[in-house]
Structure prediction request, 223 residues.
Amino acid sequence: MDLSAFEQVIGYDFKDKELLKRALTHSSYANENKLPHDNERLEFLGDSVLGFVTAEYLFEEFKNRPEGALTKLRAAVVCEKSLFKFSEKINLGEFIFMGRGEEHTGGRNRPSIVSDAFEAVIAAMYLDGGIDVARPYVLGFIKEAVKREASFKDNKSLLQEEIQKEKGNTLSYEEIGEFGPDHDKTFKFVVKLNGQIVGTGEGRTKKEAEQAAAGNALLKIQK
Prediction:
């Protein structure tokens, strides 16, 4: 596999090419080829580097939000589903060294494998070039995700505030469908005011769909 092609994709030239290769080596490949290392230890370190860079960014970006809100926001941004989406942007699955059996069962598109490799690459960049190399790489992915997740809270909160202007109003959210493959599902939700549908929305996660439904309801209520 041509590691230089992956370096071009991520925009970083490794001094230690073996470090990059290890980051891209799944345990199935290591076992099959009797190699002493796979990417699991790097994945462990990368998880911490990712968490630190994300926490640092949230701490500076949202100066008035309490610890609990920042914790929830970080968890949403660095969850497996988010990491898999980040990985798709750089076609990471194509570059992973993987055993034949794992590959034949769809390993290159398995979120758990690809997201772990993404974290391993972060660790490799950190070890090879330090935090000043890893930080901009991570921020290049998480800023958009943070913006999207941070805005989610607003629609539901605003809708709740709007309906509470009249006593006795109640809101409920209900999933009415989902479609797409397991690794890329889209969910559809409705929001009901006193049992009547007032908004619909779709999203890649249930939370996103609920927020979209709340936003749709706000457009109608606030006209």
Observations:
- The mean pLDDT is 91.
- The chain has ten helices and three strands.
